[in-house]
């Protein structure tokens, strides 16, 4: 599936290069790239489709690919967040093994493990962006973009109040992304305030956001 996306993107860019002036090529490339989902999200969606169709071994292979993607995506996280993500990845490994052996895991269990990973990544990326704001504004915005994408991905699997609150935080993140990082201290404070909101949200909805609610951890300032 990832190869198909890559080929499609390559073909689109080839046509763009031949039909548009050179000055527009970079713009087209950036716009297309921004629309691409995280590869782990693509793999997990494929796993759910295969699972619902009774193709359990195929679902297991997609989960295995998603685990590798998430390992890559979380390599630069803080020690605490990496430990959190690793616990969720261990859960996904267990589910993958059950599916491949014919011991079918509950689909809700699969989704919750992914929500735990995604919200953990979003939480940590957001905090890191607040740190980057002072001195490395470009990195701050890139990291915030990652956080927003993860929250959007997680919110698709949520319901009710937790989903509504997630949507509000995504909007706040996008509003912050649109602000000028030259106001570094102000930008950093706003990012940290959003982290605090996420702390409260995660604590209030532990049973929905965490495969094991004892694995919740906050960032304290």
The tally of beta strands, per DSSP, is 0
The number of helical elements comes to 10
Major sheet description: none
Instruction: Give the tally of structural domains.
Output: 2
Give me the secondary-structure category. mainly alpha
Rg on CA atoms, Å:
19 Å
Task: Using the alpha-carbon principal axes, give the shape.
Answer: elongated
Q: In which range does the helix fraction lie?
A: over 70%
Overall pLDDT score: 76
Strand percentage lies at under 5%
What is the H/E string? HHHHHHHHHH
Distance between the termini: 41 Å
Keywords:
221 residues, mainly alpha, 10 helices, 77% helix
3D structure, described in words:
- It is a single chain.
- This protein is mainly α and 221 residues long.
- It folds into 2 domains: 1-36; 37-215, no CATH class.
- The chain has helices spanning 2-19, 25-35, 39-52, 56-73, 79-100, 107-132, 137-155, 160-177, 184-204, 206-209.
- Helix 1 packs antiparallel against helix 2, helix 5 packs antiparallel against helix 6 and helix 7 packs antiparallel against helix 8.
- The longest helix has 26 residues, at 107-132.
- The radius of gyration is 19 Å and the shape is elongated.
- Mean pLDDT is 76; it is low at 1-36.
Summarize the structure.
With 221 residues, this protein is mainly α. It has helices at residues 2-19, 25-35, 39-52, 56-73, 79-100, 107-132, 137-155, 160-177, 184-204, 206-209. The longest helix is centred in the middle third of the chain and has 26 residues, at 107-132.
């Amino acid at each position: 599936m990832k190869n198909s996306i890559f080929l499609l993107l390559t073909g689109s860019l080839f046509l763009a290069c031949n039909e548009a002036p050179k000055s527009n090529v970079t713009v087209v490339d950036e716009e297309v790239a921004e629309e691409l989902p995280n590869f782990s999200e693509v793999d997990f969606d494929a796993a759910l489709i295969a699972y619902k169709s009774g193709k359990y071994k195929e679902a297991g292979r997609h989960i295995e690919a998603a685990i590798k993607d998430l390992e890559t995506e979380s390599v630069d996280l803080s020690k605490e967040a990496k430990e959190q993500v690793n616990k969720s990845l261990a859960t996904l490994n267990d589910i993958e093994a059950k599916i491949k052996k014919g011991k079918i895991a509950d689909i809700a269990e699969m989704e919750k493990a992914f929500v735990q990973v995604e919200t953990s990544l979003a939480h940590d990326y957001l905090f890191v962006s607040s740190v980057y704001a002072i001195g490395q504004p470009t990195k701050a915005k890139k990291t915030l973009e990652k956080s927003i994408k993860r929250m959007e991905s997680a919110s698709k699997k949520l319901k009710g109040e937790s989903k509504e609150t997630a949507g509000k935080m995504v909007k706040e993140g996008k509003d912050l992304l649109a602000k000028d990082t030259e106001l570094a201290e102000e930008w950093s404070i706003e990012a940290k305030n959003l982290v605090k909101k996420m702390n409260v949200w995660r604590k209030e909805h532990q049973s929905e956001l965490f495969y094991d609610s004892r694995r919740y951890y906050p960032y304290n300032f």
